Amino acid sequence: MNEPLDAIFQRRAVKLFEPVEISEGLREQILNAARFAPSSFNSQPYKFYWVRSPAKKVTVAKLCLGQKPAETASALVVAVADLGSLSATTQAQLEWMRRSNFSEENIRDYELNAKIGRILFMPGPFGMFAAIKRVLFWLLSLRKVLGMPPLSRQDLFKWATKSTSLACQNLMIAAEALGMNTCPMEGFDGRRLSRYLGLSGRRHEIVMVIAIGKKSCTHNEPPQWRRPLDATVTVL
Ligand SMILES: Cc1cc2nc3c(=O)[nH]c(=O)nc-3n(C[C@H](O)[C@H](O)[C@H](O)COP(=O)(O)O)c2cc1C
Fold first, then answer.
1. Please, are residues 16 and 218 in contact by the beta-carbon 8 Å criterion?
2. Helix or strand or coil: residue 76?
3. Mean pLDDT on 176-182
4. How far is the CA of 187 from the centre of ligand 1 (A)?
5. C-alpha angle 176/178/180, rounded to 5°?
């Protein structure tokens, strides 16, 4: 076996952690692995809050319904789908392209695609543009093979959640490869946790909270069950 596969097959959702310190270097490696995940249009529509201060961890663990992995973790990572970062990300990538001497043609193409993306993705006031775009795309799809872009705000959060989840998986596999353990959690009070972190309901949605630490030696690991391959795969 090779190392990435070892980490993938060894990873378990750990429910009880030892109190260990996570060094700044280790934290950076884990978070870097997260941000190198693929994302739709390379838009990286997420934010991570790494909660390590003991007092803040206690509060966030309470908002994770007092679950044991949250209470015993060395750090809690709140993964947030972030629609508010999109135009800043486009600007940052443009600046990077200019600094890296991309051709004018490449830069123009990127700018044009970003503009089209902005128009396609904008739900507009009261979701008005979404309704217009839905009809337009439906009419076009009668004549053309067409993918439907995310139209409503809810669609946009679903779109951003896909990329956020991939980053979360990278984070968990990296943590495992670096000798740490994790537990992804969707058991949390989203409204209160968002308020605690100062998030905006229009732009942010918490996707999951990841407890991270070192598995306790008293942690009782249940056997791991998965559906058989032929129940999850259709080979065409
Ligand atoms: C999106 C998501 C949400 C989860 N939420 C919780 C949770 O709130 N609490 C918990 O203890 N485990 C949670 N888990 C962990 C799963 O229960 C666990 O991954 C599953 O039982 C399989 O076990 P394994 O990861 O050890 O193979 C969650 C996993 C995922 C992917």
1. yes
2. strand
3. 98
4. 9
5. 55
Band of the pLDDT at 1, cuts 50, 70, 90?
low
Q: Which residue reads 């109190």 in tokens? A: 19
Cβ(69) – ligand 1 distance below 6 Å = yes
Q: Work out the pLDDT band at 66, boundaries 50, 70, 90.
A: very high
Angle subtended at Cα 56 by Cα 51 and Cα 59, rounded to the nearest 5 degrees = 115
Report residue 80: phi and psi, to 5°.
-120, 125
12 CA to centre of ligand 1 in angstroms:
9
| Averaged pLDDT of the chain | 95
Among the residue ranges 22-26, 27-31, 33-37, 153-157, the one predicted with the least confidence is: 153-157
Q: Which residues of 164-184 are buried (b: 16+ CB within 10 A; e: fewer)?
A: bbbbbbbbbbbbbbeebbbbb
67, 181, 186, 225: which to mutate for ligand 1, most atoms within 8 A of CB?
A: 186
Q: Is 12 in the pocket of ligand 1 (CB under 6 A)?
A: yes
Q: How many Å apart are CA 152 and CA 98, to the nearest integer?
A: 33
Residue pLDDT, tens place only, 157-174: 999 999 999 999 999 999
Q: Are 46 and 167 in contact (CB under 8 A)?
A: yes
Q: What are the residues facing 69 on neighbouring strands? A: none
Q: What is the pLDDT of residue 207?
A: 98
Best mutation site among 183, 225, 227 for ligand 1 pocket (most ligand atoms within 8 Å of CB): 183
Ligand 1 neighbour 225 (Cβ under 6 A) = no
